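Consider this pair:
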Amino acid sequence: MQHKMNKYWKIILILTGISLLLNLIAFSKDFCDWYTDHIYPFISDTLGRMTGWLPFCLTDYLILGAIAAGILMPVLLILLIFLRKKTKYRRFTAVYFKSALMILVCVLTLYTFNWLIPLRGSLLGRHAVSQQEYSIEEMRTALNRITDELNTAAWEVQRGANNCLIYPDRAEAERSAAKAMQDFSAEYPRLAGYYPPVKPAIFSDVLKWMGIGGYTNPLTMELTRNKYLSQLYEPVLLAHESAHHQGYYKESEANFLSYMALRRSDDPFLRYAALIELYFTVAEPFYNSVQAEAEAKNLRFEDYMAQLDVIQPDGILWDDLSNSYEAAEAAYKEDAHPLESFNETAGQVAETGWNAQAAVLQEYNYEGDYVLVMEYLKSEQQ
C-alpha cells in the first residue's frame, strides 16, 4: 500500500514539475513559436483524429462529469462527518479525492501542452508588430474597399424567391471553410494540415445564453459550434475554431485568419460571410473616430460624414442579416429548453468570463482583430 502511495505522489509531482517547468520556459516567445510549429501539431492532430470519429461531442459529457464530480465533493465531505468510523467509506472518499486530484493535474498538464504554450507565442507566430492607431482617412480607405467587395459578393451568392439567401449544405460549407484555411497556409504555414469536424454542442442553448458561438477544447481537441448560430455567421465561426486547432489561440488572430482566409474562398457564400464580419470590424472604430472628430470640430456628425466619401453597403445586406437572425431564433424556439431558468445566471457568468478574458488577452482579445485587418489591407496595397 505504501509503495502505491509513493508511486501516486511521484506521478503527481512529476506532472506538476513538468507543467511548472514548461510555464517558466514559455516566457520565451521563441520557444513557444518553435513548440507550436514542430511539436503541437502532432498532439493536436492525433487527439483531433481520435475524437473526430465520435458521432457525439465528448467534450460536453466531460463537462457534465466534471460538474457532477464537483457537486459530489462537498456531499462526500459532509457524509464523512457522520461516517468517519466506517473504514470502507473513508477509503472510498480517499480514493475519490485522490482520483479527482490526479485528473485535475493531468488536465492542467494537457492544457499546458495544448493551449498555454501556443497562446503565449508571438502574434501570428511571426513577432508581428502592428500600428495601433489609424487616421480617419486610412480607416475610410479600408472601409470603402471592404464595402465595395461586400456589395459585389452580396450578388454572387445563390438567391431564391424575393432575393432570399440560399444557404449551402452545412457539411459542404465546413469542407469549403477548411479548404480556404488550408489555402491560406501559403502565408500562415500553421494552417496547413488536418481539420477535425466541428460538432454541434449538446447544450447549445446554454452557449446561446452566454453569447458563445463555439469553442475548442484543448483536452480533446474537439471543435464545437452552437447549433443556434445564424447560418450567415456560421462559416466564420467554423474557420475561427479551426484556427485555434492549428495553434492560433489568441482571439484576435483567429478572427483575422478566419476573415481573410474565407475572403479568398472559391465559395461565394463564404466570401460574403467573411466580408460582412470584416465590414463591421472596421466600420465600428471608423464611425467612433468620425463621431469624436466631429465633436472636436464642433460639427454635427451628419455634416462631417457628408464631407467624407464613404461607400454604403447595399440594402440587401440588412435583409440578409435580419432573415438569418430570425431563422436562428425560430430554430431555437422549436426546441425545448429545460434549463431556461438559468438563462440570466448563464449570462452573468459569461459577462464575468468575457471581462476576465479581455483583461488577460488585452490587445489580443476579439477586438484586436481590427489592427490585424488594417495592417493586412495596407500590406496588400504595397
Observations:
- The radius of gyration is 24 Å.
